[in-house]
């Protein structure tokens, strides 16, 4: 047998034998071998075990089978409690096939009978050398493998088929040690579920058993409550057990929960400000409550600053000391700083952030310890503040998300206040316009009626073409008055809406319009939610416009005259020649609405942008108000309207963003 190569010297051997003389002979014989042996002896198993407890520098144990206090195999079992792989050679004079079989079954490294002569020590030296070489090689491989495991970002451990831990890296050791009830020291060799009773019956327990039974990999994410940790786990089974890889994804879950929470807040805020049935005050109260919940503060207020007064306009708090309508000097509030700087004020701890500030006692009176507020603007001037404050100072400052949320809320309040103010001004202007139109029409009609009466008397007494011209001028003035009234009243708010059958209404409108030889083609079965009288006026104006300007005998120029004067068209309808080429008006559906078109000469592209202007007309007799009225009726409903080319080359008016019967129901 060739000599084993021992890379590291010396080889420390512990020889255990009750025969001290033979033990000395073994020590001296091995010392003469070429391999560098350092032999220590022990007279019995207990002394040997004591040596192992005190020293970890033994590379190989050589033991007699018959020991004073036990057998070599019993001693071997005790050694395995210290080390699962330390080389152990049974070197005995009491050899038998039974002992040899038991030794092999027990797992001893080698079995060797004592013989006469010195050759046996050479054999023993070779066996020791081979065993130690294998032992050191396995330890080196294991060390390298463990180093690889420890460098892994994931925690890793493996169990055998009996659920005993066979190997694990440092990451897994840290987690498993924290999860186990007691500090049990070495984890290798421990029964996984006995050491982790809290995990029995959990998803971890079920998935590991599933992988073991089905011999199929499993992956899952699960929360382990005892460690307050989320894990991403991958389990790979084999015939000998399981390999488990896992990583801590708690931060990922917290980020996900945080994003979901923020999405929920923004969705709730959208639902609040989109609720048309709520008043502005109710909406602000709901937004303040939402902000209080998200920021964890006791107070939320929308306040107006008027001169030196700070007026609580809307209040959200459980503190009855503060009510909407209360007024305090603005100088005693933190909001003064916010309004003066015209930017968001963030105070996580007022006692520190406001150091050196005098004349401010809001914090003392109400126990305010933290503050987050943003200015509210109307017409580019500071209207007041939208703010939140609490009674507990913050360990950290308000987060960027919290500051952004309050900024967003304050901007909505600013926009809504601005919109309300603008609407109030528009309503006041419209009321004045309506009053003016009524007064003007009344004052103009009185002298017109007198003049018309005198013309009729004059026409009865004589025939004069000048009188006919005056009558036509009076008709023209009356048309202007009626259209001005219609245009002014179109600014009024759309009335109650109802379900309107578009086809039926179109047929009814056609019957009331002087159409001559023109024809109507209805290609819709759509039902709309609309103010029926206003929709009727819209359709009649478009139909008159098409009939008047679609007939070739009524074209004063190649362009399509873009007006539809209600009263004027009735008086001028007699001028439509019955024998002229007729026009077809079509009413049909488009996505999200309907259209009205004709097959007349159409509207040139460069005129389409101005057809709804009140001054636009291509007829000397026209007022230019007809299509302006159409546009205002459409916008009053919240519809969109555009002009394009019809399918037959004529004018086409498309109305979209319309609530149909399926949407209304």
From TrEMBL:
Principal EC category: transferase
Catalysed reactions, semicolon-separated: ATP + protein L-histidine = ADP + protein N-phospho-L-histidine
Domain Response regulatory: 12-129
Span list, region Disordered: 548-582
This protein's UniProt keywords: Kinase, Phosphoprotein, Transferase, Two-component regulatory system
Record-annotated Histidine kinase domain positions: 439-656
A family per Pfam: Response_reg
Polar residues bias locations: 548-558
Domain of life of the organism encoding this protein: Archaea
Protein name: histidine kinase
Organism: Halogeometricum borinquense
